[in-house]
Structure formats: structure tokens, C-alpha cells
Amino acid sequence: MTKKDLPPQPAPSDRLTRLIFGLRATGVTDERVLAAMERVDRGAFVRGVFAARAYEDLPLPISCGQTISQPSVVGLMTQALNPQPRDKVLEVGTGSGYQAAILSLLCRRVYTVERHRALVDEARSVFSAMSLANITAFTADGSFGLPDQAPFDRILVTAAAEDPPGPLLAQLKIGGIMVVPVGQSDTVQTLIKVKRLDSGYDYEELRPVRFVPLVAGLASE
Ligand code: SAH
């Protein structure tokens, strides 16, 4: 069979529309989140052989041995975070940049931190190709947050910690929300929503998830 004989593949935009439609059945119901996800082409964040699977609800490998999260998990986390148009948001674990791109359409300013410099470089080039000018990506250990930019209205951690890191709790505004997977790295973790109250914090367990671990320090490559 030659290439000419293969059945035509639907255009990426049709495949994206179908993916987003399917997310409703997984519990992503917030219309603003769905609209933002429909505007961000996930195919731009996945390279090589896995690019063909970018429009399936699957986590996929990216550079540096890391993963781009499953779209339904991205949707549920974004929905739980409930970002508002005036918000300043911190994401820990830039990875491919996909989650940061979605956040950038839902709030005023996104700071995203990643310990692998190569991933930060790749994500920055996708952000600029998409003209997403309200995202700043840093190579740093995100467990310490970004003291210079703090406090944040929202913090989204996309790597699993044993407990919500203290510096991140401290950098959350009163009334602010943090969503973070907690648990041992090699077991099922629980997604937690933390709300900062006038005094103290309120913790709500959302659902089981599986993320790569939050690792201390900058990556050597
Ligand atoms: N949000 C990403 C997926 C994240 S995968 C996306 O949309 O594609 C988790 C990422 O967290 C990995 O890239 C990993 O390198 C990064 N990471 C792990 N520990 C970290 C730390 N202490 N500081 C910053 N990034 C970290």
C-alpha cells in the first residue's frame, strides 16, 4: 500500500475538537476550561513518534524522560484551580508547557518553573510561536516557589510531593488556591486542593492521580 492509498487522516483541528468533546465525559465540565483547551493545539507540545497520539486522552513521553499529562487530568486540575482573569499563577513543573499554555488563556500572568533547562527552552519556543506573551518560564527548583514574584492567587504543582511544599504554601495569597498531587512517587497519589484561609489552610482530597515525582535541585543535563 502506498502513502496515496492510506485513508485520509482527519485534520488536527478536527482531532482536537473530538478530544475536547470527549473530555466532558471524564468530568471536565467548566466551559472556560474546555474553551481554553480547544484553543491550545496539544500537537505542538509533543515531538517525534508520539506526536501522532497527541489528540488522544493519554499521557505521553517528552524530552528528559518526563511526561506531558493526560488531557483529562489537565482539565480536572485546571477546573479545580478555578483560575480567574486577574490572577497571577505559578505552575511548578513546566514539562512540555501544555498546562502553562492553557492557564495563560485563563488568567493574567503565568510563571512556570522547571528543573530541566532543555524543557524550559523547548516550552519557551512553543509559547513564542503561539504568541503567548503572558507566560514566563524559569529554570529552577520549583519546590521553593518564586519568592520574587510571590504571592500568587493560584499555584498548580504538576509533580508529586510527599507533602505540599512549605515555601509554596507560604507564597499563596489569603483566599488563594493550590492544587498539588501528594504521595509517594511510585504509588498512586492523591490530588489535593489547598485553600489559604485568613488563618491556616483548608485541605480537600480530589481524586487519585499518578505524576512523576517532585525532585530536589536542578537537573544536570
Ligand atoms: N505540566 C507539564 C507536565 C509536567 S511533568 C505539562 O503540561 O507538560 C512534571 C515536570 O515536573 C517534569 O518536567 C519534571 O522535570 C518537573 N519537576 C520535577 N521536580 C521539579 C522541581 N523540583 N522543580 C521544577 N520542576 C520539577
Name given to the CATH homologous superfamily of the domain at 72-209? Vaccinia Virus protein VP39
Radius of gyration based on Cα positions: 17 Å
Relative helix content: 25-40%
The chain-level structural class is alpha/beta
**Which percent band covers the strand fraction?**
15-25%
- Within the largest sheet, what's the order of strands? 5-4-3-6-7-8-9
Mean pLDDT: 94
Low-confidence stretches: none
Order of helices and strands: HHEEHEHEHEEHEEE
Ligand kinds:
S-adenosyl-L-homocysteine
Shape: globular
What does this protein structure show overall?
- By secondary structure, this protein is of the alpha/beta class.
- The protein has a domain at 72-209: Vaccinia Virus protein VP39 (Rossmann fold, 3-Layer(aba) Sandwich), CATH 3.40.50.150.
- The chain is built from six helices and nine strands, in the order ααββαβαβαββαβββ.
- The strands form two sheets. It has a seven-stranded mixed sheet with strand order 5-4-3-6-7-8-9. A two-stranded antiparallel sheet has the order 1-2.
- A hairpin with a 6-residue loop joins strand 7 and strand 8 (189-196).
- The radius of gyration is 17 Å and the shape is globular.
- The chain starts with 11 loop residues before the first helix and ends in a 12-residue tail after the last strand.
- The mean pLDDT is 94.
- S-adenosyl-L-homocysteine is lined by residues 66-69, 92-93, 95-96, 98-99, 113-116, 119, 141-143, 158-159, 212, 214-215.
